[in-house]
Amino acid sequence: MVTSSLRVPKHGHTLRECEDASHVLTTGPVCVAVADGASESLLAGEWADLLARTLTEAARDDDCVLRDVDGFASALVRAGEAWGGWLADYVAGREADGRPIAWYEQPKLDRGPHAAVVAARFDTDPSGVTRWDVAALGDSCLFHTRDDRLLHAFPIESAEAFDNSPGLVNAFIRDHALLARHVRTSSGTAEPGDRFFLGTDALAAWFLRAAERGDRPWDVLAEFTRSSDLDGFTAWVARAREEGLMRNDDVTVVLVDLG
């Protein structure tokens, strides 16, 4: 099983300003998470990173985390609890550097950062069959492909289903039941040679539009992800934006290749 990830910021922004994050664990079952921080919130990229890391570790440690909405909601609450400690260290660090939180930053800090997230776990048995489990809250997506077919799109199945108000995980929410109501899960099996792509919303919307036209967007992404060609991917994303094929937003894709 081969994994690869690529990330490109919005046009006019640096990679350091990118508010997408991904995390991949390959020891034991392969666990992947992709998170998309909401730009209108403060520290969205940092929250996305912590969320992705927390969820991959939770999925690695417990094979039930991604199989039901309650298990995933519990992992989201744990990520929020970890954020409390991270934020305290951040505020203390700012004060130690002589850059305390400014009055205009405090309202956004109090509201907390938001992010969409999708996480997946892949377990391969001795016969070569891979079980996959995925959970999501929001509009970051997973695509399961085989040869020239899109077998599964999750949690959004059509390009027109994307909108401007996706579900988001707030770092301060501890309401397990509320989170669980917005979580979606899915599971299945895969064969050697299958490929999975996890991506944030701008890329996912492009992917589904291309598939609906009869194109093979999985081959386009595989060209860059298999070789970890960040320069080529960055140039391709820029062209797609210029041609109006992709919204100008942070873009992240992770490939899990069962070939």
TrEMBL record:
InterPro entries assigned to the protein according to its UniProt record, in alphabetical order: PPM-type-like_dom_sf
Superkingdom of origin: Bacteria
Protein known as: Protein phosphatase 2C-like protein
Origin species: Saccharothrix carnea
Classification of source organism: Bacteria, Bacillati, Actinomycetota, Actinomycetes, Pseudonocardiales
